[in-house]
Amino acid sequence: MMRQQITADIRGKQMEIRMFDIGVNLTSSQFAHDAPEVVARAKQARVTGLILIGSDIPDSEQALALANQWPDYCFATAGIHPHHAKDADNSSLERLEELLSDRNRALVALGECGLDFNRNFSPPADQERIFSQQLELAAKLKRPIYMHCRDAHKHFIELLRPWVGKIPGMLLHCFTGNREELEECLELGLMIGITGWVCDERRGQELRQLVPLIPDERLLIETDAPYLLPRDLSPKPKSRRNEPCYLSHILEVVALLRQQSPEQLRDQLEQNCRAFFSLTR
Asked: Minimal CA–CA distance to 74: which of 65, 83, 82?
């Protein structure tokens, strides 16, 4: 009965939902020709703001430039993704420190950084080196850190653990791990970002079981657009490109899984986002 009631509430109040997308790759070439329209659709869909992810130095500079086009609506991160670790050198880290030291109010976290042993676009040793250096930089500059981990949990936790308490906030975005990995991340105080992966009845089954275990104050949601278009969207978009305007669907699914009303969850997520990224508007 509770599930039926929540579903009814979702259908009846969908247009009232407001939420913040904490993961958008607006610098992707998939958005090269219509980024303003993408932002406009997000606003029309009652998304209250976007975090634009930086994945290397040029990309981080571009994310910041885009964020400055929509002040107080778009914010940016700056970091070196594990895919780009092999190309990073001392000058890359120096430029990253310059960006983060500037305290531009649109730049709200260090990242995306971490480990990805699934594709190994960069050798694991390079990934671990660059991740460790960014952890050190986040602690030095007192910046929250925005992280990625795929098929590398053991090494990720080993590198992260010494910095717990020294970095003001830690977020693992696009979580797709198992229960043991989730519990270890929560034990270390990490915020957990959930994407449209949870809407995939094939790959997302385990995640659907884990979502209710995340404490209210540790949860965030994101599209990771243009990737991870929710598989169960209906009607299906003509394009397979994901956009922030679909965030409400992810919120609805997460609310249903957690046996919460979308309004209750929305308010908590908004509070979590503003606290983690120190958004004052």
From this structure: 65
Cβ contact 4:246 at 8 Å: no
3 burial level (CB within 10 Å; 0-12, 13-18, 19+): exposed
Name the nearest CA neighbour of 191 among 275, 106, 103. 275
What is residue 226's predicted lDDT score, i.e. its pLDDT?
98
Mean pLDDT of all residues in the chain? 92
Task: Give the tokens for residue 214.
Answer: 């995340």
pLDDT digits (tens, 9 = 90+) for 172-201: 999 999 999 999 999 999 999 999 999 988
Return the half-sphere exposure (C-beta side, CA atoms, 13 A cut-off) of residue 189: 14
- Asked whether the beta carbons of 157 and 120 are under 8 A apart, the reply is no
Q: What is the DSSP letter of 225?
A: B
Strand order in the sheet with 170-172: 19-24, 47-52, 74-78, 107-116, 145-150, 170-172, 191-194, 219-221
Q: Is the pLDDT reported for residue 223 higher than 90?
A: yes
Residue 201 is inside which H or E element, if any?
none
What pLDDT, on a 0 to 100 scale, did the predictor assign at position 18?
66
Helices (H), the chain: 2-13, 35-44, 57-69, 90-101, 124-141, 153-160, 179-187, 205-210, 247-257, 262-276
Distance CA(140)–CA(181), nearest Å, equals 27
Both tokens of 259, joined, read 């046996």
Q: Parallel, antiparallel, or unpaired for β 191-194 and 170-172?
A: parallel
